[in-house]
Design brief:
Blueprint lengths: L1 H12 L6 H4 E4 L7 E4 L4 E5 L6 H21 L7 H14 L5 H6 L8 H17 L4 H16 L12 H13 L2 H4 L2
Parallel strand pairs: 1-3
Antiparallel strand pairs: 2-3
Helix pairs in contact: 1-3, 1-8, 3-4, 4-6, 4-7, 6-7
């Protein structure tokens, strides 16, 4: 999957190499949660009882790898700073494919103008509420306060990958990112 390939390489370049046997865990989970990132162990949990399709698993892995990337490069205070959590959830919803047109159509959510941003905001709020005992108002306020900066932080993709083809282009660009500077 080009999304995961790019993120794994970006993590490695940031000094946070991911090992599949150490940093991924498949478990049964409560409710309808599909996965999570455990900052204490730097481990991605995949909820095997709630993931039924490869495409869904790819999105969950990508979403959680974005959290791992943020944890590595930004030293996110996951437990005490809800704005940090909000920022990573915004980035994960924006860059993982969670809010692609096809995914939104499959959820029976339609819209044209600003729909991607609305989806990212709503999914970030839902994710915060799923992992923290905060009020909906607190989650909404945190997301609104950091939305613009975090929505526009496209690292390591450099663009919003709206499709696998976009993700492949982003991965190629990422691989060639330093090539041009080396010749100066």
């Amino acid at each position: 999957d080009p999304y995961a390939q790019l993120l794994l390489e970006a993590l490695k370049q940031s000094g946070c190499t991911v090992f599949s046997d150490r940093h991924f865990s498949c478990e049964n989970c409560d409710g309808c949660v599909s996965g999570g990132f455990d900052a204490a162990t730097s481990q991605i949990v995949l909820c095997q009882n709630n993931i039924r399709q490869q495409s869904h698993m790819n999105r969950v892995v990508t979403h959680e790898l974005i959290h791992a990337f943020d944890h590595c490069r930004a030293h996110v205070d996951w437990f005490k700073n809800v704005k940090h959590l909000a920022c990573s959830e915004i980035r994960a919803a924006n860059l993982s494919g969670d809010c692609t047109l096809m995914n939104e159509i499959s959820r029976f959510k339609f819209g044209l103008k600003g729909h991607h941003q609305t989806c990212v905001r709503d999914r970030a709020i839902r994710s915060i509420l799923a992992v923290r005992k905060v009020s909906k108002e607190t989650a909404e306020k945190a997301v609104d306060e950091v939305f613009d900066a975090c929505f526009n932080d496209l690292e390591p993709f450099g663009r919003i990958p709206h499709s696998k083809a976009d993700a492949k282009r982003a991965y190629r660009d990422f691989q060639n990112r330093d090539r041009y500077n080396a010749n100066l």
